[in-house]
Hints:
This protein has helices spanning 6-12, 25-45, 120-137, 142-148, 160-163, 171-189, 193-212, 216-242, 250-253, 261-278, 281-284, 288-303, 307-311, 319-323; strands spanning 56-59, 64-67, 77-78, 83-86, 95-98, 106-110. The protein is globular, with a radius of gyration of 20 Å. By secondary structure, the chain is α+β, with helices and mostly antiparallel strands.
Amino acid sequence: MRILLSILLLTVMPQVHVHAQQISTADVIRIREFYRFASLVQDKIWPEWSRVPAPLLLVTDQGEFLTHHPAPPGNFRKLSDDFYSRERTFSTHLLATFPAFGPPSVIVIGEPESTSAKTSTPWLITVMHEHFHQLQNAQPEYYEGVENLGLTHGDKTGMWMLNYPFPYVEQRVNKGFDRVRNLLLETLAQPDPQKFARLAAQYSAARKQFFAQLSADDHKYLAFQLWQEGIARYTQIKCAEAAADFQPSVEYAALRDFQPFAEYAKTARPDTLDELRKLDISKSKREVVYSWGAAEGFLLDRLTDRWLDGYLCHPFSLDSFFDR
């Protein structure tokens, strides 16, 4: 669950307290490898990404371990120059980015085996997804802008991001989604430049028609989710592909669950496109935005490399890139 508002997590997560102990060697290796990897690739994907603070809170059965935070809260005790610890408060299954202690946003994540990543290499690339949310959150007036979307309808917990009543099961939405999804996949699979251009124009028109049938709030909600979570998945895949040539540290490569980055990189994009191909929006509901938004990022890459420069300048919607 990737949710960016601290009030949500403070409201819904169980308050379980476990005595803090030392962080494991394997966890230290994974976390340090994330920062090492991020320092080498992040600015190649998003300009000035490295300027964004990247604190991380690892949640384990033994406790919570905070690193790279500019001002660790007083209830954390120092373990080393890199890490602070406290008793466990959050779930070990958590995967989220939010201002847990006030700005800046913190990646709050369990160990690989406790999350959907399961092993070290997918876990590290997933952390890059969450790190991208830190870039989104760091934009001026981000939170004010989200509030001004007018989608909360009085919900102060942040649960609206998950529970917004989008009409996923309506037949018109199902048919419309199937059409734009199939066109998007056909467009991405087209190698011929002229045929690709025609298909891209058809996709843009079909996309616009799909959004036009939605209410104003439904339009804003879906556009926001594609912009936020879809492009975070896109970024995750770009990071995986950038990792193909990354040389892991000796310590990281020695982890029992290590998977070569080049091996993982080969499947990252095909797996997301296959996920999109198989989706039934009436059943997947909000989960559809991850692979759909990522695929739109791949399409925009082929249309113009300048969209990356405008992404953060046009928050909460990709519509303007397809209207041109």
